[in-house]
Amino acid sequence: INEFTSPGARFYLGVAEDADVGSNSLQSYELEANAYFAVEAKESPDGSKFAELVLRRALDRESEQSLRLVLTALDGGEPPRSGTAQLCINVTDANDNAPVFAQDRYRASLREDAPVGSVVLNVSATDADAGTNARITYGFGKMPAKVLQKFAVDAASGTIRLREALDFEDTRAFSLAVEARDGGGLVAHCKVEVEVLDVNDNAPEVTLTSLSSPVPEDAPAGTVVALVKVRDRDSGENGQVWCELSGEAPLSLVASSGGSYKVLVLERALDREEQPELQLVLTAVDGGSPARLGTAQITVLVLDVNDNAPTFDRAMYKVQVPENTPVGALLLRLNASDPDEGPNGETQYS
């Protein structure tokens, strides 16, 4: 009898035979006490009494898969005599139970450098029905195409795997809708939250946002020469950046808000005649393990200022001139030099 059979349904059980006649013959049927069935005696046109099994209460295969009841046939003699038969009732399954997930919500964490094919987790659902009604197939519910491209679920086992590389800087978490469908078409749902863990896969980016070049050599100490932007797309310690300058130049690095850095002229004034060009390398190192770094080369030209007077190659010249030297004769060649550049270094004599 199927468990979906409605109460009131009747099942013919046949006729018990009694060789006696009259009141000594078969008179009634009785059924062992139970929660589901009763028996009724019916009389056929030829006068024989047959038994009908009547369902009084809905069956549930999941709570009771079979029943064994004793059916008794009684005659009307004194003393009454009886005969018995055993009723073996098998309750067949109906798809009256939907699948049930072990958890309504699953959580998993996955490093962003996890290889394609990595197992995210296993979801599991059970169905109290039997046979094909209990056979569960797993799949994804309605989700954005971007999520469906990243993950795959095994229809038979419920194993969720990575099918495309992750990128923490692009997406830090995914929410998956997973379905479990039984052979009768009933469906259960659960949520899978996948957290993407950051890996130090990005080097710091160093960008020169502004540069004052050339810089006058008489610029005072504290003059801002360049602005540099430093950024690391990673998070946490992987995204924390330290910067340092290297090179023979009287410049230092001073941090300001928002990841910008000011390059300042330090302590002493510049001297173009000593160092006409400043070459520096800015190195940014993050806090990951292993650490990654980014660099930028900064070249600053020093602009000449007329800070040097011409100087003769000697402080005093002596020359002897015969008195009969003709007018226009060359007496002496003088030489003065100026270390400045361009017009500042050109000399005139008088």
UniProtKB/TrEMBL annotation:
<keyword id="KW-0130">Cell adhesion</keyword>
<dbReference type="InterPro" id="IPR002126">
    <property type="entry name" value="Cadherin-like_dom"/>
</dbReference>
<feature type="domain" description="Cadherin">
    <location>
        <begin position="1"/>
        <end position="101"/>
    </location>
</feature>
<dbReference type="GO" id="GO:0005509">
    <property type="term" value="F:calcium ion binding"/>
</dbReference>
<dbReference type="GO" id="GO:0007156">
    <property type="term" value="P:homophilic cell adhesion via plasma membrane adhesion molecules"/>
</dbReference>
<keyword id="KW-1133">Transmembrane helix</keyword>
<dbReference type="Pfam" id="PF00028">
    <property type="entry name" value="Cadherin"/>
</dbReference>
<keyword id="KW-0677">Repeat</keyword>
<keyword id="KW-0472">Membrane</keyword>
<dbReference type="InterPro" id="IPR050174">
    <property type="entry name" value="Protocadherin/Cadherin-CA"/>
</dbReference>
<keyword id="KW-0106">Calcium</keyword>
<dbReference type="InterPro" id="IPR020894">
    <property type="entry name" value="Cadherin_CS"/>
</dbReference>
<keyword id="KW-0325">Glycoprotein</keyword>
<feature type="domain" description="Cadherin">
    <location>
        <begin position="102"/>
        <end position="206"/>
    </location>
</feature>
<feature type="domain" description="Cadherin">
    <location>
        <begin position="207"/>
        <end position="312"/>
    </location>
</feature>
<keyword id="KW-0812">Transmembrane</keyword>
<dbReference type="GO" id="GO:0005886">
    <property type="term" value="C:plasma membrane"/>
</dbReference>
<dbReference type="InterPro" id="IPR015919">
    <property type="entry name" value="Cadherin-like_sf"/>
</dbReference>
<keyword id="KW-1003">Cell membrane</keyword>
<keyword id="KW-0732">Signal</keyword>
<feature type="domain" description="Cadherin">
    <location>
        <begin position="313"/>
        <end position="350"/>
    </location>
</feature>
<protein>
    <submittedName>
        <fullName>PCDGE protein</fullName>
    </submittedName>
</protein>
